[in-house]
Write a structure and sequence with these properties.
single chain; SH3 type barrels; 6-stranded antiparallel sheet; 5-stranded antiparallel sheet; Transcriptional_repressor_C; EC 6.3.4.15; ligase
């Protein structure tokens, strides 16, 4: 973002071999270990409306799952019908292996002088290992039996992000991106609880709407849309 303030327009990728002050959504800390992927992309955003720009996070999620499939040899786009995809997307910004978190994505925007707008999308992926603070609820590629490294994954990610962003077409192609995201969505059709900070909404996860908002079908047959919150699935939804 500092480079954007200095005039850099992007696209520009920056990756770190070591990250000392990682952060996640809603002020959470993101810890990394040597060998994991910590990378951010500065993407051109001037002229894109904020509501369209928000859907770029779904581009990031789709690109990352495709890159993971390519780097790990699982080819998620040609998975046989009915077969479980190894990498699933958890709204709004996580990638899972099973029920464990593998990766997080953080999208940040800033309006700059001259009405320029910058967006930076950060990717943190547990490639080589899981931080000690997350050992009970996170997963790594190496620990799950996948053989790759951060450099190879970044090469696939930069290619896939460019391709998916082209299909997104500055927000005009979000309908197609939405369908691709739903095909990889974790917990779709099952019980869900979302903590919004003030209330907890429970019901059935009915997907995302045309703006990327999470849709909950409540027990009283009403529908709720959520723009931000902590998501729990299955038995965790009951306990949340």
């Amino acid at each position: 973002m500092a480079l954007a303030r200095a005039g850099e327009a992007g696209p520009l990728w920056i990756a770190a071999r070591r990250q000392e002050a990682g952060r996640g959504r809603r002020g959470n800390v993101w810890d990394s270990v040597p060998g994991n992927l910590a990378a951010s992309v500065l993407w051109p955003a001037t002229g894109i409306e904020p509501e369209q720009l928000a859907t770029l996070g779904f581009v990031a999620g789709g690109a990352l799952t495709e890159a993971l499939g390519a780097a790990c040899g699982t080819a998620p786009d040609v998975t046989e019908a009915g077969a479980e995809r190894p990498f699933r997307l958890k709204w709004p910004n996580d990638v899972l292996i099973g029920s464990a978190k593998l990766a997080g994505i953080l999208l940040e925007t800033e309006t700059l002088p001259g009405r320029r707008r910058a967006v930076v999308i950060g990717f943190g992926v547990n490639v080589a290992g899981v931080p000690a603070t997350q050992i009970d609820r996170a997963a790594s590629l190496a620990g799950s039996g996948y053989v790759t490294d951060a450099g190879a994954l970044l090469a696939h990610l930069s290619d896939r992000f460019a391709a998916v962003a082209s299909a997104w077409d500055r927000g005009r192609g979000f309908a197609g991106i939405r369908q691709r995201w739903l095909a990889r969505a974790a917990g779709l059709g099952g019980p869900i609880a979302v903590e919004t900070g003030t209330v907890t909404l429970r019901g059935r996860f009915d997907g995302i709407d045309e703006g990327g908002r999470l849709v909950i079908h409540a027990p009283d047959d009403t529908r709720h849309t959520v723009t931000a919150g902590e998501v729990h699935f299955g038995t965790a939804a009951t306990a949340a």
